[in-house]
């Protein structure tokens, strides 16, 4: 009887030890504001800072000491696998979409401390935080503050889709937006605005994450919606005013 009890007790103790080993490694995957991202980056020793934008975007200015690995690179997963899984990884892109997807890949690879910059380098700049100087010739914006004001002045109702060519959900929504543009052409201007071609305006409006939708009526902003939207949701947004 006593021997059977000791066997059961021993098995229970072994199970407890195994469970404690499995739960011993805590995985952190946090989305941080720009100021929190900067502060946490300073606090963490041996931090790895990862910029997942394209090389061209990177050369236009980046966070100091960042490593550039393009999220769209076919070898992206194998390249990030070379990073140290036991050290913190801080990841960012332009608006937060690519870095969020990259953070999920890092998590799947077993990285234990992942910090994602909410709103990307756009939010970082909006908070007045430093970036390196561009090594590329500065490109003039193709869409300016004046263009934007004129557009709002000429059209009573305007739905603005802030997007970028690299933004996957933005591309998915393009057909729906084209249909809505045609459907409401007599009453509403549906305008797709590329944030990479309107950097000054994007900064002025404090655009951070994309896709982002602004609905204007008589020149005034009346509704803001962020993230991927179904066509029906965008239609409801338009008809709500």
From TrEMBL:
<dbReference type="Pfam" id="PF00581">
    <property type="entry name" value="Rhodanese"/>
</dbReference>
<dbReference type="GO" id="GO:0015035">
    <property type="term" value="F:protein-disulfide reductase activity"/>
</dbReference>
<feature type="signal peptide">
    <location>
        <begin position="1"/>
        <end position="26"/>
    </location>
</feature>
<feature type="domain" description="Rhodanese">
    <location>
        <begin position="43"/>
        <end position="133"/>
    </location>
</feature>
<protein>
    <submittedName>
        <fullName>Thioredoxin</fullName>
    </submittedName>
</protein>
<dbReference type="InterPro" id="IPR013766">
    <property type="entry name" value="Thioredoxin_domain"/>
</dbReference>
<dbReference type="InterPro" id="IPR001763">
    <property type="entry name" value="Rhodanese-like_dom"/>
</dbReference>
<dbReference type="GO" id="GO:0005737">
    <property type="term" value="C:cytoplasm"/>
</dbReference>
<dbReference type="Pfam" id="PF00085">
    <property type="entry name" value="Thioredoxin"/>
</dbReference>
<keyword id="KW-0732">Signal</keyword>
<dbReference type="InterPro" id="IPR036249">
    <property type="entry name" value="Thioredoxin-like_sf"/>
</dbReference>
<feature type="domain" description="Thioredoxin">
    <location>
        <begin position="102"/>
        <end position="241"/>
    </location>
</feature>
<dbReference type="InterPro" id="IPR036873">
    <property type="entry name" value="Rhodanese-like_dom_sf"/>
</dbReference>
